[in-house]
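We modelled the chain as a single entity of 344 amino acids. Its sequence is:
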Amino acid sequence: MGSEMCIRDRFIVWSSVVLIVPFFALAVWTEGASALAAQLQAIDGTALLAVGYLAILATLLAYTLWTQLLQRHAAGRVTPFSLLVPVVGLWAAYAFLGETPAPLQWAGAAAVLCGLVVNQAGGLAFFAHPVDPEAPAVGEGDISWVDWDLIGYTGIELWNSFSEFKGLLKSKLHGLFYAYSPNRVASGPYPEAFARWDTLLGQGKRVVAIGGSDAHGMPARLGPLRRTLFPYEVHFRCINTHVIVPRPLGNDALADGQMIIDALRQGHCFIGYDLPASTRGFRNLIHGAERRVGKGDEIYSKNAVNFQIRLTKRTRCHLLKDGNPARTRTNHDLCIDIPIEPGD
């Protein structure tokens, strides 16, 4: 352990020293030697303290502690704390410089702290409404997710029933039609949501996909007509997230709840559209040269992988690879080989 710490500390020190040379050369090139010399001669005690703080506390000590935490704990538990950087900066500006943050900045800081508490408590976080277009005909705005640079999240709500409904409301007459025909709403996730999920996966991130009813059961009125948009008894039979757990639920609510949360965190789940027919019982396994895995797991293979898919009914099945259809089959039980190409 001592030798590992020595090597790590040496790396941090030398990586910090090496950067001085290119940055000094860049300063000479952009500012000029005379201007740089004048700046060096004007250094006072305050500037030296600032440099010492940046070099010793903000660099050597901070990165040493950071690497120690990453060695002792899972990255998913440690990296979310980097979200505190702007929060600490906001507080420091308020405490030491007398700056007054705007209410929206305080709200953002509170949201970050709440998310961090949820993460450290073992909770899950999903990007909701990845694509949720505006519907001016009914006074609904665009609430699509926009900040995709966050870290520490579990997954993405790939298919949102109400978001899809909003995209169909081109006029109030459309709303009236779908109010009386809710079974005609769902057709699949937005292509943009699929593309976003595929992009995140292509970046090597582990992103679990879930579906959401987003049930509202909203009463609506158009002249003498009254109707509940997406009544709960219909909505809860549409888009559902099915969780694959290692055992049936028992009488211990805490243990069962933790089992479900763990399954969602690991991606042991699938999205089903259950209104036409129940998707309960759908399964797919992937066989490689040496092992077999299920949904949410990872597998490495040099040549090809074999997908074994069990559908609840004889159905057309499209298998996508890198966002594009790789195979299409129609059956109840399917066995499909997908070749592994360089870069996969």
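As a brief sanity check on the tokenised model: The chain has four domains: 1-72, 75-122, 126-280, 281-344. The CA atoms of residues 56 and 262 lie 40 Å apart.
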